[in-house]
TrEMBL record:
It comes from Parathielavia appendiculata. Keywords: RNA-binding. GO terms for molecular function: RNA binding. Signal peptide: none annotated. InterPro entries: Nucleotide-bd_a/b_plait_sf, RBD_domain_sf, RRM_dom. This is RRM domain-containing protein.
Amino acid sequence: SEDELRSYFQSFGEITYIKIPPSKSCGFVQFVHRHAAEMAINQMQGYPIDNSRVRLFWG
């Protein structure tokens, strides 16, 4: 869920947008500051969530 996604990423910084499109196995997280996104990418790449590993990319 979007709330669950927020719980994983909010520790990196202020989030402006979170979306999980219907019928998709992906989600989008947008941070206020670039350095927060950089930290999230560096620390969460490959992190296991719900039997899958997170793959993070710049959007």
